[in-house]
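Consider today's protein:

***
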Amino acid sequence: MDEIASPADADNPEASAASGGSARGPVRAYHEAVLTQRQPKVTDLLPVRPLWVVVAVLLGITGIATIEAIHVHAATLRLAEGAGHLAALDATQRGSLAGWYSSALLAAAAALATVVFGIRAHRVDDYRGRYRIWLWTAAALAWLSLDAGTGIHDAVGLSLTLLAGKPVFTGSLAAGCTLTWICVYGLVLGTLGLRLAVEVWSSLLSFAALLLAALLYLCGALFQLQTLRVPATMVAGTVESTVIMLAHLSLLMSIGLYARHVFLDATGRLKVHIDPDRKGKKRAKLKVVKAEKTEPRSAAATSKPSESPKFGAVPAAGAAKPGAAISKNTISSSHAEYDDDDYDDDNLSKSERRRLKKLARREQRRAA
């Protein structure tokens, strides 16, 4: 059994040798970059920059185009013998390049769903635990990856058809099994997809990619049910396999874009676009309201009190209205300090604002 040295001896073998005793622990044969704190994180592999996102999408499309080109070339060879050796190049066969590529795309999507779960689990305002949907998503994508590589959906359809007690008729069992597994997958995965669409709604690119994947999967199901027909000029199996692989790629793009979105949001690097034309609540502006002409004030009303009334005091019954008053919504106190921000009007200059403030103080003193 391997011996484990203490961390101090492993980190400083020179100090242990200089102390006079022989270093019993193993001498480090690797650079310090092998340490855990210096290893790259999983989130470092996310394509954060838009350029790398475009490159990843183009690489995925290039892989699909390459596989289909190989499939078309192999289907047009017309070999009399040895045609079975080219089954791996036929996109319609199980265990082919198309099946492997689809399985790899879905496995990558499952890994990204796990990354999203690891980030979303730390959101502080998710009181209901909505982040758990990504665990179900990762499990569903892992199953789809297995299905793309093995074609286990046919076995599922046959099992459910036999359990339902449907009698076996010649020529109709295959169609019944196909309809069964498509309905089951559509019900289970469609429900999960709707819940996932609500989750990724904050990222419009991710939502658009998920919607595109749903449309492509629907087209693939219609091809399986032979509701949609492929033109006779096309090589057999080219359109169906292309649609399915594009659907897998769109699903991977959706989860990858949302993983990028939550990573930028968690690290505070997400750009927030603010509309400068949008106006919130308007600040109160100073308005001088001219009062109507009143009758001459009596001697009691014109006598100046020794002290100015406090804010909120009710004037005497015989007191007449002052010559000018300040609107109620603008001034809260006669002792309030005025600032230039209170007169936030693009049509007024600073000198006009100061003049209005002086006029307001003068009218307050007269009203007092």
Notes: The beta strands are 288-290, 324-326. The two ends are 95 Å apart (CA to CA).
